Structures are given as C-alpha cells and as structure tokens.
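Q: Hand in one record:
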Amino acid sequence: MIQHISDSTVLHNGVKMPWLGLGVWKTKDGDEVIQSVKTAIQAGYRSIDTAAAYNNEAGVGAGIKEGGAAREELFITTKVWNADQGYDSTLRAFEESRRKLDLEVIDLYLIHWPVQGKYKDTWRALEKLYKDGAVRAIGVSNFQVHHLEELLAGSEVVPMVNQVECHPRLTQQELRSFCAAHRIQLEAWSPLMQGNLDIPVLTELAAKYGKSAAQIILRWDLQNGIVTIPKSVTEARIRENGNIFDFSLSEEDIAKLDALNENHRFGPDPDNFNF
C-alpha cells in the first residue's frame, strides 16, 4: 500500500524510485523552474523529471540545491534528445546534461523517443554509462511494444523504466502487461491529460472522495502500479498533487476510470512522430 509521498517502487536492479515526481516539461529555465523544484522538494517530493530538450536542466540543478534535501534522498531523471542519439553523441550529450544539472551521478537516464536506426546505438551508450556508474538506472521513453522487443533482442541490460503518455483515456493496457512481464517499470507523462479533466466520472469521484479530479487520476496511477510525474508551476497545485496518500480508490472506482480508455493521445504518437 502506497501511503507516503516518499514511498518508492524498486526497479529490477534494486534501485528505489519514488512513485510520485515533479515533471518540468515546458517549465521555463531560471526562476520558474527553480521555484517549482524547490517547492516540490519542500512539499516532500523526492523525484524530479527533466530532459535535455526541456532546456531547463541548469534551473533544475539550482532548484535541487535550494530545495534543501540531501542528494541521496533525491531521484533525478533526464533524457537524451533525438538529435543527439547515436553512441558517441549520446555520451557527449550525457556529459552536457550532467554539467548543467551539476550532479556527479544521474539517477535515471532515458532515451527520449525511439528514433529509428539510432536507438539501439543510443542504448549501448546508456549501458556503458550504467556500467561505469555514471547513472544508477537506465530506461526509455515513448517506446511501444515493438520498439521494446527490438531493443531487448540485442541488449545486455533490460530497461528499468519506460516513460510514456498514460492516463484514463489512454490506459496502455497491452504495453503495461508487456512491461510488467519484463519487469520494466511504467511511468506516466501527462498523467493529467494536459488539463482535460472535465469528465463526468472524474467529477463524480472527486465529490465522492473529497479530492480534486487531478488527485483522483494520480491515485489511480499509484494503485495501478504506475509511477507518475504531474507537471505544475503553481505552489498550491504542486502541493495538491502531492496530497494523494491519505485515501484509496475502491476497485469498482478504478474499473470506472479504466473504462474511460479510448486510446486517445494528447501528445505525439511514437510511431508517427516527426523526428
């Protein structure tokens, strides 16, 4: 039972990863991202998710320092961007991310998108970083089942995490089953459907549990074994998103949310993404 903001899942290599993190996609570098990260850490969050492509790694690094938590308590994720994929270029991109974040070791390094013809070489670079101890865990983002099958075929290390768009309107059931079978932790980006929360079932459950629609979805993530990283720059919202550990959804209500699935994406389709 997940009952505290610092509760973690254990990845298949034994590393602990918090169930809840702060996403910083589209959060501006400088004051905005520094304040968001600082607020989240002071509200009890221990996981921060950024990416080279977000252009805010330096601000995330500053926010981590100002947040006041011990480095070993934190779990920091970043990602290699598509233009940097390939073996040597990924190693260079990693050094740049590490410099901007001002961190010796990154907790989780992900391939941002499955760029055809490149992601296997990129994965070899991640395997090297992992073996060298520069990262504590490695994984992928936006990989469908067929991408994962291709990656697993020639890899020494099974990805620890697959971060994908996932929410009640895109429940990713087939992908979740595949990941579970291979002990790959699924993580949800855009868990709050980019703010499209005006759905009768959500309104009904929010009233029933005395929570917001966002809190209902985030709790649904946790009870489905999905790591979740809601993004916000508002202090009240960051705190609200973290306040999901004092209630549980019934199995019947989880089923109601599962039934909202329409395979509807708010973000790009990994198979038809303009790389």
Q: What stands out?
A: Strands lie at 8-10, 16-18, 22-23, 47-49, 75-80, 106-111, 135-141, 161-165, 185-189, 227-228. The longest strand covers residues 135-141.
